[in-house]
Amino acid sequence: MFRTLRKPLKPKEIKKRRLEAQLERLQADEEILKLPVNPDLDRNVELMKKLFGDSSDFVIRQFHFGASKEIRVVLVFVDGLVDRNSISDSVLKPFVLRTLEQDGSEVLPANPYDLIVHWLVTFYSVKEEKEIGKLLDLVLSGFAALFIDGSEKALAVEVKGWPSRSVEEPKAEAFARGPREGFTETIRYNTALLRRRIKTPRLRFDMMSIGRFTKTDVCVAYIDGLVNPALVTEVKNRLESIDTDGVLESGYLEDFIKDNYKTLFSLLDRTERPDKVAAALLEGRAAIIVDTTPFALIVPAVFSEFLQSPEDYYEGNDYIRPIRWLALIFTVTLPSLYVALTTFHQEMIPTGLALSMAAGREGVPFPAVIEALMMEVTFDLLREAGTRMPRSIGQALGVVGALVLGQAAVAAGIVSPFMVIVVALTAVASFLVPNYSASLTIRFLRYPFLLLAGSFGLVGIFWGLVFLLLHLASLRSFGVPYLYPLAPAVPREWQDVFWRSPWWKMDQRPLLSRSPNERRQAPAQRPEPDRRPGDGDEGDAGG
User: Fold this and answer.
1) Is the pTM of this model over 0.85?
2) How far apart are CA 166 and CA 372, in angstroms?
């Protein structure tokens, strides 16, 4: 019968409800991101709360500033992405000390923004932002946002402090000689490793952000004056054209920017070694460094580089590189040659060897091609299992498993002893390819060549090689022929393909980079022993 009297709302509560009503009309996050920073501090705080929701790692720290604490300031950051000591020492502590030192006689300006940015925030990296969206990106990148009541600008203080792995020896690229430092998952550590090796202001790091949700930092590294400007422009254009939800590893970018997506061959070189990237930059090429991954991409890349190792340039005797080319041929063709000879071309095998092979195959119920396929799949399974297991167990599994299974298969009459030898030699040869991505593709090629050998013999192998070479010759890596300098043939560049010439002889940069500065060192630096005056005369007199 009687209406209950409602308690009148306080002014703060009325203001809060008005803000909530305004925020309800901004349903999409995209609308909020386009809004400018508002002089009303409460509105800015409510906008940030609406964006982050009830996330537990989102922190809002509100405090007052001034002798009579008349100025309100709000600090916003994401816990886990910032260094708490930096926030305490460089942001909060100066405000507290300034407030305690005031005796009430100091008159603060109407807008204390200038006082705060120039006197109180003592961190080395501070950015001014007027847009909520840009400020949000900085907060998610390890910055702390400082909102000041009455100001249309906010401060973003760089206080990054997320957990990171220290610089360690590269795990995926084993080597005997050379630097033991490898890239990490933090992009600034990686750029510092390159800057440490290339001490020139011409070394450039152009940053961009890719991914609608991840907003991953991507860096294009090059040396101004050595790189072809057209290459840098093309790399940036391909990266900026990527529109995807996220980039979690450099392999995401590789699929978007490589010239031919239908090929199995890697058209970009991947590495986690800073010395290899530095060497590529000095040749006039560019590198793509991605945050959250230790693997960098080098562009352009050619096929012959996948058979090279950085330690080739540190050792004086480079006889191992021709062996790698021989191992490449063995890996692709050895099992298929064995199948073709034993199935179609027995007359090409010496008589004594043919009798031994026939005796070994006696009782084997499968044709040679099925026998080879079974053994190749078995060895690949063992190799993959050894890779996924802990390092100490995986190595033992690969060796012991191959020996036990091979011996058991021969004893059971499933495969012949010669087939085990051929497959084992092929597996060992495949490990000589230094690049992991290239070795995967080369190992895969064994299977189509086995099928061709089992169906058509040596003729099938020949046509398989022809189609393989035609495919490789048709590939490009950022406009550079994939088989360069073999096709097109550039004999001058062969001094660093099948073997490595001495450093004093390689005085020009590779032509594939099209560098505006072709010469990388002074010519005629061949070491010559000093000839003392009279040495030649004494020799002639003695003669």
Assistant:
1) no
2) 45
